Amino acid sequence: xxxxxxxxxxxxxxxxxxxxxxxxxxxxxxxxxxxxxxxxxxxxxxxxxxxxxxxxxxxxxxxxxxxxxxxxxxxxxxxxxxxxxxxxxxxxxxxxxxxxxxxxxxxxxxxxxxxxxxxxxxxxxxxxxxxxxxxxxxxxxxxxxxxxxxxxxxxxxxxxxxxxxxxxxxxxxxxxxxxxxxxxxxxxxxxxxxxxxxxxxxxxxxxxxxxxxxxxxxxxxxxxxxxxxxxxxxxxxxxxxxxxxxxxxxxxxxxxxxxxxxxxxxxxxxxxxxxxxxxxxxxxxxxxxxxxxxxxxxxxxxxxxxxxxxxxxxxxxxxxxxxxxxxxxxxxxxxxxxxxxxxxxxxxxxxxxxxxxxxxxxxxxxxxxxxxxxxxxxxxxxxxxxxxxxxxxxxxxxxxxxxxxxxxxxxxxxx
Length: 415
Prior knowledge:
2 domains; 415 residues; 9 helices; alpha+beta
């Protein structure tokens, strides 16, 4: 009995310690260690220590290999890249000419850190630069292109009909067309702070969902703050109506830490804000004037319908991943693993199955109508589409009535 009590006390103490450790914020050192296998740390002028991914081509861009999910915290980026659970939810991105995109760490978690643009046919998003420091009482509005000098080449654009794709990388438009797309779009950024969380409003969910070729679900975001389940890579997972993500709390006081290895030092002058591809000074001036005009009335919440309705989806408390036994009828959440090509394909297949199911539901009435027409040998008009009888059909109907009337008269005379 004493031995059993000792074991029980040990288990309880370990459980309490695990919960306490899960609530303890991690430092920037956690980022440094987690990202080391996937890239190198460099020093970029006044921006300080930044991270650049390995094994990417010169045209590689952030917020491209993945898809957008809509949650109660707004538009949430789901990445297929091993490092994406960190670099697309903390910190900001900057582009260094002749080197590539680099990530500057920060301690605040958000569904995504992007500037949004939307037009009649296209929707686009660009990584926010390190200058975009979030303040809970201000947020980011439609003026961020002008305020942070975000140039055209920073944007990823796709057709609105393709926005719901589970593999956006394959449908992105060549950046050489970005100037024309920006000319025909408006900034709809709307990042705000609500219910103790950062909300990425962005473009109107109802508009994009209604025009997307694939359905865009509205999900509940569940943040797991225990860094112990992340390992070196983690992948957001959809479980029923929930999108479960890894989101450890980060201590702001750790911002002055230094990575163990610095690969190289890059000068400030090589930072490209997205304008280097435009040589015409008049074109630059015109686009900057457009951005300035957009910022005149910019404020968080100004875009109608772009933010989820207040309390539209109940928010679960942010809890560490410490469940030991499932509640009745509740799926057990397994620890996250590194996303493989098979996992990526499974996510895409899941989207395709759901899209096919909804397409079948839309076409089922028409298919049933076709079956009935074949069985009965006649074409029945669809509801609400009844046409007036044709002149020929009317004549035949009247002729039948006259024949029937004549027959009745003959029968009466014989009687």
